[in-house]
Structures are given as structure tokens and as C-alpha cells.
Amino acid sequence: MLAMTAASLSADDSGANALDPAQTSAYELMQAQLYEHRRALKAIQSIERKVEAKRDYLPLYWPWVDGVLAGGQGARLCCIN
Predict the structure, then answer these.
(1) What backbone torsions phi and psi does residue 47 show, to the nearest 5 degrees?
(2) Cβ contacts of 40 within 8 Å, gap of 6 or more
(3) 64 vs 19: CA distance, rounded Å
(4) Are 52 and 4 in contact (CB under 8 A)?
(5) Looking at residue 46, what DSSP letter applies?
(6) Residue 73's pLDDT band (boundaries 50, 70, 90)?
(7) Could you tell me one molecular function GO term of this UniProt entry (predicted)?
(8) CA dist 42 to 6, 49, 55, Å?
(9) Among 44, 71, 41, which residue's Cα sits nearest to residue 58?
(10) 13-51 pLDDT, tens per residue?
(11) With the C-alpha atoms ordered 18, 76, 78, 80, is the resulting torsion angle positive or negative?
């Protein structure tokens, strides 16, 4: 999924900020995926459909969360103090 997200961002971009999956860290790919999911959620007006989308998205993040918790080194997010 992360590679698909990076590929879609590369295709959408004019090349100035395109992500190259071969040269992009797992953290950057996760951030790109999160950005795409947040963008998709903003486009959904129905709360019920947003809940369904979140149910689909959430399992994609569990391996990342488990890895960060197991490693004890999480990155600080700008939106979480």
C-alpha cells in the first residue's frame, strides 16, 4: 500500500516533490499514505461513509504503530503535543 501511495503521488505531481519509493524512508511513505487518507476523508460528506473508510484504513496503520511501540522510538507529530 505504501508503494502504491508513493507511486500515486509521483504520478499526481509535476515532478518537483514526487516521492521515489526507492529513495523514500518508511516514515515518509507512511506520512504520504496518511496525507492521502486524510484527503480522501475530507472529500466524503457522509459520516457513515467516513466511518467505513476509517475501518478500511485503520488496519493499514497497525503494523506501523506496533513497530514504533516495540522499538520505543516514535516520531513526534505536529498535531500531537
Answers:
(1) -65, -40
(2) 53
(3) 19
(4) no
(5) -
(6) confident
(7) DNA binding
(8) 20, 11, 15
(9) 41
(10) 545 556 677 778 888 989 999 999 999 999 999 999 999
(11) positive
Residues in Cβ contact with 20 at an 8 Å cutoff, skipping those fewer than 6 apart: 6, 10
* Grid cell of 23 as nine digits: 529513495
Cα separation, 16 vs 11, in Å, equals 11
List % helix, strand, coil for the chain (3-state, nearest 5).
Answer: 70, 0, 30
Q: Please enumerate, as own/partner, the contacts of 59-63 that have beta carbons within 8 Å and a separation of 24 or more.
A: 60/1, 60/33, 61/30, 61/34
Give the pLDDT confidence score for residue 72 in this predicted structure: 80
55-67 pLDDT per residue, tens: 999 999 999 888 8
Side chain identity, residue 45: Q
